[in-house]
Structures are given as C-alpha cells and as structure tokens.
Amino acid sequence: MDFLELARKRQSCRNFDLKKAVDKDLIEKCLDAMILSPSACNAQPYFYHVLEGDLAKKVSGLTGSFNTFAKNAPVIIVLEEENYNLTAKVGSTIKNQDYKSIDMGISVSYLTLEATSLGLSTCILGWFNENEIKRLLKIKNKIRLVIALGYAANGEIKEKKRKSKSAIYKIWEDEN
Length: 176
Fold this sequence. Notes:
CATH topology: NADH Oxidase
Strand content: 15-25%
Distance between the termini: 39 Å
C-alpha cells in the first residue's frame, strides 16, 4: 500500500481482540522501523520497553479509567525518555528546541505506521500513572507515552475528522 493509504488506514484502536496474540517477529518489525526513524544528531533519546502477559496487564491497568480498553491489548509499549548525545544537547540548548519530543514523536509514528502496514492496530496513550509504571518497571527517567498494540476486534476504518487545509497549511509562492 502507498503511504497515503497507510496514513488513512492508521487509527487509534480502542477495541483490541483479547484472544489474538501478536507474533514476536511482527513486534520486531515494528521496532526495526522505529530504529530507522530520524532523530537530531542521531541521538535517539528514548528507550522502548515492550511488555506482554501479566506485566502488560499491570501497566495497562495504570492508564486511567477512560483507557480501560488497553487491558485487551496483548502488547503494551512504554516509551522512556533518555538523554541526548552531546551534539544534540548543545544544539537543543543553543536553538532552544525540544528535539527529544520531536524525535520521540517521529519514532512512535514509524512504529505505529509499520504496525498498521502489518495488519496490527495501535493506540498512543498520554494519560497514565507515571510514578506507578516507573516503580513497576524500575525506570528512572520520564515516561513519555504508553502504546497499546494488538489486533483490532473489528476491521472498521473510521472516517478521519480533520481541520480544513487552510487551517493547517499555506503554500507560499515566490513573488518574483
């Protein structure tokens, strides 16, 4: 499938098939795509914790009362923020840019789009009990996101509601 078709197909799944496990080879392919994502000075300032089984259930239970659907996802991925390398740290300081957040967002995009291309579904969660997850996984750094990964219980693709093009971008033409 071409990229636009893939982008149209990727959506936040809130109805995972509890009975269908995800093959480790597919998880590895998603992680391989994530590794290929660009990052400032190739710093890759993140670490992905991939959880299955009881540990995934425990962490999914820490994602808030309106994310209860996550308990049916067979795989939970916790994204831990790590330090920059020296060149990215210097550049971030000089330019007053948060390259870490940008890099993590791109890496999550690569992972979730690869998952979609493999017939998997994802939901990126920003609401969770960070302190409890850190304690459970013995993580010292900030947790930025939790990603539920699995198979959708149904294959329905919802229509995407988006702002108008004029509200999101403008193409500037040279006046000469």
